[in-house]
Write a structure and sequence with these properties.
About 65% of the residues lie in helices and about 5% in strands. The chain starts with 5 loop residues before the first helix and ends with a helix. The chain has seven helices and two strands.
Length: about 190
């Protein structure tokens, strides 16, 4: 049995493309003009590709961390799209919202899930974002002969992973933080 099915790969591609559109304009390599601010929904392929390269790994690796940790515990795990979450992100982008909150997908887990396993599996995604955030910051601060464009991309990678970590660790359902704290609470008490 494959670790990732073809349908999951297709779902990950869809998420990547939608993330590229939603974050295009936020992640850009060009100087913004007045025209850009007056037309925030303008389709720019280079911005979309850059956004896919920055936002998609943060989100996809987050979800795959949940999946692979669950599989390591012997559970069944599958990545699903959240059509509502994707639509919400696209709508917020289309109306030019300054705040874009959405959940593009989730990992469905089944099997013998104990509270401790639930907490560890839930923390796997935010933990990966924490590693990417701190790793990017480390590379920026230590400059390892980075070019300006590389430093900018690492800065954007750091930013998106920081916010994904912070947002996902809020202990409010259905966010990962609620599953982590609920699982730990059940395991301790």
């Amino acid at each position: 049995m494959a670790l990732i099915s073809l349908i999951e790969i297709w779902r990950l591609i869809i998420v990547s493309l939608v993330l590229g559109y939603i974050f295009s304009g936020l992640f850009t390599t060009r100087v913004k003009t007045v025209y850009d601010y007056l037309n925030p929904r303008k389709f720019r392929l280079n911005d979309i590709l850059l956004s896919i390269g920055i936002a998609a790994p943060a989100v996809i690796l987050h979800e795959l961390a949940h999946k692979f940790v669950a599989l390591a515990f012997g559970l069944n795990a599958e990545f699903f799209l959240s059509y509502f979450g994707l639509a919400l992100g696209v709508i917020l982008k289309l109306v030019g919202s300054p705040l874009i909150i959405f959940a593009p997908g989730y990992v469905g887990i089944s099997g013998n899930v104990t509270p401790t396993i639930s907490a560890v599996t839930a923390f796997a995604g935010p933990a990966l974002n924490l590693i990417l955030w701190l790793g990017s910051d480390y590379l920026i601060k230590n400059k390892h002969n980075l070019k300006r464009k590389q430093t900018n991309i690492l800065g954007l990678t750091s930013m998106i992973n920081k916010w994904l970590f912070i947002f996902n660790m809020i202990p409010i359902p259905p966010l990962d933080g609620s599953k982590v704290f609920y699982g730990l609470f059940q395991a301790i008490f």
